[in-house]
Amino acid sequence: MKKQIGLLLSITLAVIMISSLPSLVLSAYALTPSIIDDSHTTALYGNSKVCGDHICAPGEHNQMLDTMWAAQRSKSTSQTGSITNSIPNNSASQSTTTQMPQTMMPSMGQSWTTKTGTLTSIQDPGQGHESHQLAIVLPPSDKIYTGVISWTSSQPMQIVELTGPLGSSDSKGQPIWTTDGKTKFALTLVNVNSTTGSFEFTGNALAFHYSQPTTFTVSYAISYKTSQSSDTVKTGTLTSIQDPGQGHESHQLALILPPSDKPYHGILSYAASEPVQLVSLIGPIDPTDKKGQMVYTMDGKTWYALVFVEPGTSMGTWQFAGNALAVHTLHTTPFQVSYTVDAHN
To answer: In the CATH scheme, what is the code of domain 113-227?
Structure first.
């Protein structure tokens, strides 16, 4: 009888140890850094690594992984240690909460705002737009808004992006929006002509517009950041000059971002005094690589591959990448262009 009881206890103990083995293995595995690259990337910016809701700065992704790894290891130690710590003792029990270090929190999304809302339009207060309807999402600001908006509406929409206010001498033929004739904004009016969709934007204001007097309702979700002006994030107005490129002497060019050895990527909103072409340069390239593609040079020595987009309009928004950015026409007469650009390299 004693042997049978002993055998039963041995079997029970073995079952308990076997049933605990997977959790012990998983706990040990959880403390081993994975060899699988499970990082998030975005194809929009060349498969760049994503840290929270923004493109990782140099070294930020590794810092984030180290922090997450340390937090995981601390949490796992607390969990596995609770088995032995459950043994009664005379000391008071303590709980430990693992928090993300304060140095990580701003870079994990503090500069971005995400919100939803529903708006009912009002009569457009802009001069010349009195018979139109407008719903302002982001009011005019001296800072630059950049982001993405999704919407569903009761009428087919147009997207309004404003650049400005403009200087007193900057209004020369490009589309303008003003309520008093004094404070003027360059008007980028994108005719998406849809009751639902998504749109990436940049500018000093954002609104929905309908070119009829009928009131509309629009519900939206928006995620955006605001930026101070810099060399690559800016608004401005340019008067074109004769294109310095060989073979382009009878054309006009307004250079927004000068050639750089590091490629830019970003978004451009523009409003020009006439229909324009959008130019991005790639390179410099080896002269031996000029094999049928469009190229651009000023001196016959330094060559760029030429990205030449013709939207056929005087205003719009363009997502771009390249080593330079410009607006171009095939005419000899100068043109005026106001723009907002949010670019990084």
So the answer is: 2.60.120
